[in-house]
Amino acid sequence: MASKQEFGEPLEMTRTRTQSANTSAPSGKGKEKTDPKKEKALDITEHLFPIEEIASRHGVSIDALKAANSKGLDSAAAAQRLAENGPNILSPPKQISPFMKFMHCLTSLFNLLLILAGILNYVLLAVDPKENKVNTYLGAILIAVAFINAAIEFYQAQKSAAVLQSFLNLMPQKCYVLRDGKSSQIPASDLVLGDVVFARMGDKIPADIMIFACTDMKVDNSSLTGETDPQDRSVVNDQKNPLEARNLAFNGSLVVNGEGYGLVIRTGDNTVLGQIAGLTAGEDSGKSPLTREIDDFVKIIATIAITTAIVFFLIGYFAVYSKQGSSGISSTLNFAIGVFVAWVPEGLPATVTMLLTIAAKRMASQNVLVKDLTGVETLGAITLLATDKTGTLTRNQMTVTNIWSSLNMYSAFRSAANDGKPFDASSPGIPEVLSIASLCSRAKFDRTDVPIPERQVLGDATESGLTRFAAANIANFDDLGDLYPKVFEVPFNSENKWAMTIHHKEHTTGKFTLLMKGAPERILRLCSTILINNEAVPLTEEHSKAYDDMYALMASKGHRVLAFAQMLLPRDQYPDNIVFDKEQKNYPTTNLCFVGLVSLEDPPKHGVREAIGRCRSAGIRVMMVTGDHPLTAEAIGRKINLVLSDTKEMVAKQRGCSLDEVGDNEYNAIVIHGEQIDSLTEQDWDLIFSKPEIIFARTSPKHKLQIVKHAQSLGHIVGVTGDGVNDSPALKKADLGIAMNISGSDVSKDAAAMILLDDNFASTVRGIEEGRLIFTNLKKSIQYTITHSMPEVIPNLLYVIASIPLPISAMLILVIDLGFELLISLTFAWDKPETNTGLMRLPPRKPVTPTSIERRRRLATRTLAPVIDSESGEEVKPSAFARFQHEFKSMFTAVYWREKFEGSEDEVLVDAGLLSWAYLEIGIIETVGALLTFFVVFYKAGITPAEAVRMQKANLFSGEDASGEHKDLLARAQSSFYLGIMIMQLFNLFACKCRYRLPFGMYMFSNMRSFIGMICGIALGFFIVYCPGVETVFGTSRHTEFVYLLIPIAFGVFIIFYATMRTLILRKLKPTNLNDEIIGLNMAPTMKTIFSRTKSIQRDGKV
C-alpha cells in the first residue's frame, strides 16, 4: 500500500562532490510559434506605440516606473467620458418581445393551415347558414386549437429562457482603478477609455488594457482563443498581431499569476470580446431539420387538400349540381370546402408539440436544457459533431500523469493506458519531487478549512496541477510553508524558462535548500548530478540517454513536461546569515542535482471516451475544433476514440517516403492547422470532410465558423459543442449549438440552442439517443394519426358523388381528431426503442455520402443565385417574389420533376412509405371496414345500400320530411361508423408501434401509458355515443348496438395480420442496414484521476 509522505525532520541524502559534467543538454521540443490570421480588421494598434504616447492620447497621467503612484483620470473627466461613450458592457442580443415570439409560434405553417380551415368553416356558414350552423363551433374550435398549440410552444420557449437567465452571471464584476491619484474599487461597467486599472492573480481583466507595469503576470486566454497555456504579459512587446501582443490583456481574460497595471484602450463592444460576440449576432442557424420537414408535410397535405377540393368541386358541379344554377354553386362550394377541412389533421400539431415538450422535459431531468423544442430531434439527426477540446472534452485542469525519478517511471493514477509502476509516495526520489512541487510554487489554496478535493487553487494551470498532486500525497501539506519558509525566489520568466526558490530547510551540510523546476532542456543543462536512490551521482551520457527517451515518451503523448532539480547549499559557501539578492546573484544556477521529470495533461472528462465511441458507432462523425496545439489535440484525440487511424505524416514515416508520395486514400485521419484554413480550396475541404477522423487545431472564432459553414454546404447536420466566447459564432451558426453551463461563458450560452447543465459531454450521447427515439416516435405517431383521414374524406366524397347517406358528420370528425386520437397519439412519446442498442447502431437519417453531395450541388445550381450589391460587394438574398417566380417556372421543366422524384438515402418525417400506409393501405382498409359497418346497420333495419342511396336523394334521413325513426337510424349508423374508426385505430396503434419487429410480443406491453390512453380514448368514445343528452350535440344515438362493433374488430385483426406480412416482406426486400463496426474503439470507462472533483483515488494513499 502506498503511503503519504510527511515532511518534518530534514531528509537524509548523501551528497557527492563531483567535477562539473560538460554534458550537452538535448534540444527539447520547443513550443511551436504560430501566427494566426486575424479574424476581423482589429483596429488595435496601441501596442505598437510607447505607453507615454497612448497616455497622452487619452489625456491621463501615469507613472511607468512607480505605477501605484499614477494619478489616473480625474473623476469629472471619467464621468464625462462615461456619459459620452456609455457603460463598459457588451450590448445584449436583440430581444424579441413576447408578443412577437408568440406570433412566430402562431404563424407556423401547421397553425396557419388550421386557421385557414377555421376561416373556411365560417365561409361555409356564410354560404349556407342554415345547413352549416354547426360550423359556428367548428371554426372557433379549429382556430382555438391553433392558438393553444402556439401557446404550448411559446410557454416552453419562455420557460427555457427563464431557466437560462438564471444561469447567467448576474453579479456585477468589480475592478480596482486609479482615479484622482487614489485606488478605489468600482463596477467594471463604469470603466472608461484612459482609466488606469490594477489587476492581480484571480482577477478578470475588465476591459482591453495596455500594460505599462507588471510583475510575473500571466493571463489565461482560453475563453477567447482556446489556448490552454497561460500567456506571459510584459511591458515590452515584439509582436505586431494584437492578439499575440505581450503588452495587451483582453476583456474576459483571467489573471492566473502575478499582477499588473494597465491603461484602458477599448471598452464594451469595441473590445476583442465584444467583436467576437458581434460575429455571433451576424449568424443564423436557420430552420431545424424537423421544422423544415413538418413544413414540407403541411405543404403536401395542403396540396392534396386543395387539389382534391378543386377536382371534386368541378366533378360535383358538372355531374351533380350543374342544373341547380347558383344554388348548385353554393352546394358544390360547401362540399369542396368540407373536403378540404376533412384532409386537415387538426390534432396533429398539438400532438407534435406535446411529444417534443415531453421529450424536452425528459432531457431536462438528465441535465440537458433545450431552448428550442425542435432541438430535441435535431440532436438525433446530426451527422457531424464538432467539439471544442478545453473544458468540453477535457477538464481544463492540468493533472499530473507520470513521474520519472531515480531512473524509474511511475504512473500517477490508475489506468491501463498509462506506462510505469504504480505511484508510491515513499519510492526513491518521489519525496523530493513532492517537496519541489509544493514549495517551488506560487500557487496556493483559497482556504484550508475544507478537505483538499473541495478547495480551489489560485494560480496558473500547471502549478495548480502540481499543488493538487502534492497536497494529495503529503499528509502535512498545509504546514509546509511554516516548516520550510521561503527566503528567496526567482519567478519563472520566458528568458530563463525556470523558476527557483531557496528555503530554510536544513540538511547535513547546511541550512538552505535550493529548489528549481522548469523546461526540461534548460534544467538539465544546469545539472551536473542526478538523484538515484537518494544519492547524487555524476550525470553521465547513459543518464542523458534515459532522460531523452523518457522526455520523448512523455511529449509524444501530448503531455506538458517539467524537470525538477535541487541543490543542498553547503554552509561553507552559503552561511546561515546570508541574504540572497537578485542584483548580486549570490545564488547558484549550475551544478544542480537533477531530481526527475513530471508530465501533466489536461485529462479527458469522465465518460468522454465512451461517449465519442458511441457517437461513432451511431454513424456520427466527431471532429475536434480547438485553439490548442496540434500535437496536444491529436494526443487527446487518440485517448478518447476520436482518432484511431494513421495520419498522412505517420504513413509517410512508416513507409520512409515523402508526404507527396502518400495517396489520399492511404490514410483516414487528418490534423489541420489553423494557418492552413484561409488558403484551403473547395477540393481541399472535400478531402478533409471525406476523412472519418478530423482535428482542426490553432483555430480562431472565424475559422470555427468557416468549418461549420463548409460542413453544412456538404449536407451535414452539424452539432457544435463549446464553452468559450470563441466558440459562440459557431454555436449560433450550427444546426444545433450545445453549450456548457458551469464552465461556459454567458455569450456561448446565449448563442447555443441546448445547454448541458452539468457540463457532462456524455449527456450529448443520451440526447442523441433521445433525439433519434423522438423522431421514430413522432413518425409512428403521424403514421397512426393521419391514417384516419381516408375514412373521413372518402365517405364525404361518396356522400356527394354517389349520394350515400352522410357516414360521419363534421362534428364527429373533429371529435376523432381532438378526442380519442389525440389522447392515444400522445402516448407514443413514452414508447421505448424496439431494441436496446438498435437506435444507436443505425446510420444517421440523412447520411452524407459522395452521392448525396453530388446531388446537393446539382440541385444548388437550379436555385436562384444571390445578387452581388455593386456598392457594398455583399450578397443580397433574392426577394420572395423572385424566388417564387423562379420556382414556378422550373415546375414546367422535365428536370424539375425528374429530380423531385429522384431516389435518396435520406429518411424524412413523412415519406412515401408513411403516406402509402396511411392513405393507400391501412387507410383504405379502415374505410372499407367503417363503411361496411355503416351499411350493415341500415341492412339490419331492412334498408339495402341501393335503397339507402335512393332515400338519401329523397332527403329522407335529414330533411324536414325525415321521420324520427330514419333520423335515429342514421344516427346509429353514424355512431357505429365513428366507433368503428376508433376500434380499428386501436389495432392500428399496435401496428404502427413496430417498424422493425412484428406487432406482437412483450414489446407491445413496454409502454403502459398506451393502455391508459386507450382506456381514456375508449371511455371518451363511448361517452359521446351512449351518454344521455350528449347525442343532441354530436348527432349520435345511445341505441347503437354493440354487435355491429364486431365488424371493425375483425378488420382490426386483419390490420395486425397485414402489418405482420408487410414487415416480413420488407425485411426481405429492404433489409435494415446497421453501421459497420469500427475496429479499435476503446469503450472501457474513462478512469477518474486523483483530481476528479467527485472522488480522489489517492485520498487514502491506495493505488
Structural account:
Helix content is 44%, strand content 14%. The termini are close together. Strand 1 and strand 2 form a beta hairpin. It is built from 37 helices and 29 strands. Strands 10, 11, 12, 15, 16, 17, 18, 19, 20 and 21 form a 10-stranded mixed sheet that branches. Strands 8-27-26-25-9-22-24-23 form an 8-stranded mixed sheet, with helices on both faces. Strands 1, 2, 3, 4, 5, 6 and 7 form a 7-stranded antiparallel sheet that branches. By secondary structure, the protein is an alpha/beta fold. Helix 28 packs antiparallel against helix 35 (1008-1026).
Features:
1103 residues; alpha/beta; 10-stranded mixed beta sheet; 37 helices; 29 strands; 44% helix; ATP binding; P-type sodium:potassium-exchanging transporter activity; ATPase_P-typ_cation-transptr_N; membrane; Cation-transporting P-type ATPase N-terminal domain-containing protein
Could you describe the largest sheet, including whether it forms a barrel?
10 strands, mixed
The rounded Rg comes to 37 Å
The backbone outline, from C-alpha atoms, is: elongated
Q: Strand content of the residues, in percent?
A: 5-15%
Q: What gap, in angstroms, lies between the N and C termini?
A: 7 Å
Mean pLDDT: 83
Q: How many individual helices?
A: 37
Structural class by SSE content:
alpha/beta
* Count of β-strands: 29
